[in-house]
Amino acid sequence: MRQTMAQLPYHYGVKLRIFPSAEQKRLIKCNSDASRFIYNEMNGMNRELYRLKQVKIPIALVQQRIQTLKQRLKHPATGISNLHGWLNDHELDSLMKANAIKNYHNAWKLFHKVHHAGTPAFHKRRTEQTYQTDCLYARKVQTPNMLTGSVRLLDQRHIQIPKLGHLRFKGFPDKLLQNAQVIRIGTVTLSMDATGRYYVSLQLASEQPFVITPKQATHGKIGIDLNLDNFLTDSMGNVVANPRYYRSMRGKLAKAQRKLSRRATRAKKEHRLLRKSANYQRQRLVVANLHRKVANQRHNFLQFLSTTLIKNHDLVVAEELRSKNMLRNHALAMSISDVGWRTFLGMLAYKADLYDRKFITVNPRNTTQTCSQCQFVMGTDETHKLTLKDRDWTCPRCQTHHIRDWNAAKNILAKGLASA
Length: 420
Prior knowledge:
The chain is an alpha+beta fold. It folds into three domains: 10-23 and 128-206, no CATH class; 25-114, no CATH class; 214-245 and 305-420. It has helices at residues 22-53, 60-74, 76-83, 94-114, 174-178, 245-269, 278-312, 323-326, 333-339, 341-354, 404-419, and strands at 10-19, 129-134, 152-153, 158-161, 165-170, 183-192, 198-206, 221-226, 232-234, 239-240, 315-319, 358-362, 392-394, 401-403. A seven-stranded antiparallel β-sheet has the order 2-6-7-1-5-4-3. Strands 10-9-8-11-12 form a five-stranded mixed β-sheet, with helices on both faces. It has a two-stranded antiparallel ribbon with strand order 13-14. A hairpin with a 4-residue loop joins strand 9 (232-234) and strand 10 (239-240). Helix 1 (22-53) packs across helix 2, helix 1 packs across helix 4 (94-114) and helix 7 packs across helix 10 (341-354). The radius of gyration is 26 Å and the shape is globular. Residues 213-329 form the Probable transposase IS891/IS1136/IS1341 domain.
């Protein structure tokens, strides 16, 4: 019996830049708009159903409407398409509709699970475009792989996608191309970012590992302390500088955004739609490109550093940071957002699984205030707690001189070893 994507032991994701034709761009926009419409239609029906259920008086018209909405939500694919006939157009991908419905149900499941993001909200029309489809395999296909599905690689530069046809791409890893016969494609996401670049994201799965597990690391175990003065300090005293990509681009961004604001104000005074204002759209692209450059620089830095740490150490221990709580400090919010801690920890977590390493996070409580030699905690025995200005200090009990971040990294490693 053929295994599903979820049953396969190894998973991987790859994002490729594609170069669609004008007709393919139009189809991507049509499918993106339809996906957003279906999601919003389901959200609207659910909200209306909730409000109608608050009516305690048994009004026949209200009860009839409730039953109609329940029936449509029970079978949304046909319920919405029958009401809005344009969704049956042959240019729209049927799997796009199924994925839009699935994403709405997943949004509710996530709300019931964590209660952080709130109930599903309406998706606004933005410059960005995105929709999802799936790769299907015929029953007669004995070995599903990247070359035999409805979404398949034609060669090292072209991919076939339903409704869109052949698309040229670049950036596919050679190690995946060499093992195309044993890798299967699952969910496929087509997207366009704010700068007008198009991408396809492939969910991959296989029965074989995607990377060859490196030999046992020579450096063994390491603890890392994340901070704003330097990006991180490890338990061996090595320091990685904070690149501060956003701050270095802040002046250019401010100037470009002021220009964008002026053009928006002028367009509104002349009663022109922003999406049809050529000057505004040109400046919007300038701002979007600056933001993309900052994001790409940060992403590249985090990817390189996380891969280096995981490949060279058997155990990596970091502090569990709550960025959402830390962002409430208005004095440090911009610096915390610029440094990308949450993204970095996520990279360490999935790369540890990919390279068969171990990554754990520990409670950061008192890791900065505790002496790594004698375990004395500052703030006790009539001592004062260390402040952010105190970059080095001497333990009042054992007289050991500490560099603040190095000492914290040692305590983080000790906590990790104790819990491992």
